[in-house]
Amino acid sequence: KMFFNEIEHSFAKISMIHRNEELEVPVDHFLSAAGDLLPILDKLGSKAFAPVKMDINGNITKIRKKCDSEANSFETLQDIIRSELSTGTTKVSNSATDAIMWLKRALSFVAHFLENIVNGEKNLTTALQKAYSVTLSNHHSWVVKGVFALAVKAAPDYKDFIRALSSDTADLECATFQKTLHAALSEYTSALQKQLSNLHSFYLSNNLESNKLV
Ligand code: 6S8
Prior knowledge:
β1 and β2 form a beta hairpin. By secondary structure, this protein is an all-alpha fold. It has a two-stranded antiparallel ribbon. It is built from nine helices and two strands; from the N terminus they run ββααααααααα. The protein has a single domain, classed as CATH 1.10.3520.10. Bound molecules: ligand 6S8.
């Protein structure tokens, strides 16, 4: 394996599922792909990322629990939300609808960050700040914005980030390797963007997007 060392389940390999005329996001593969981001945060090594990891992991766990607790199995994330819509439980505390919304927001931040990298940004702080300002910052109070500002200071430099994505034997200076990594990152990011925008449309059309700040 030359790149994406830790990633077994890639967003790039997800096939969307047909429901009527629409495409929807498959539960299992999407949650596994989200979970595979967490070891990368570990590799980046900072304790500042622990709360971030817990947040993503917590939402994955909530969604999986919801699936395990129901007799009927949910194939798509939209299936889960439709089930909560039908029982009027989208707004109860710890609803799967809320967990999917926050996972979607976190991943949208990651996708914008990666898009900035794919477009040539080599300053990770800049890439993270730009991504934050168009995603999570819209849902954060000034207190959490302060937490973000602190966490961003623990961002690794570009080289360490690339190393964390790559296998131990990869030659990071090799042009062929760089091209391959760039292509893989680009494919990964656009697949993720597509799945998130599909989910986001579903939230908007069902009026499920909350505008409460945390
Ligand atoms: C709301 C909210 N969650 C929570 O209150 C806030 C948590 C902490 C936010 C700190 C933000 C700091 C980000 C710093 C990132 C720096 C990383 C650098 C890495 C290079 C919700 O929580 C619950 O989720 C929900 O379950 C429910 O309880 O109201 C609800 C109740 O509250 C958030 O705002 C989500 C925060 C998620 C941050 C995701 C960051 C991912 C970061 C980096 C990943 C980079 C990986 C590179 C991968 C490369 C792949 C190829």
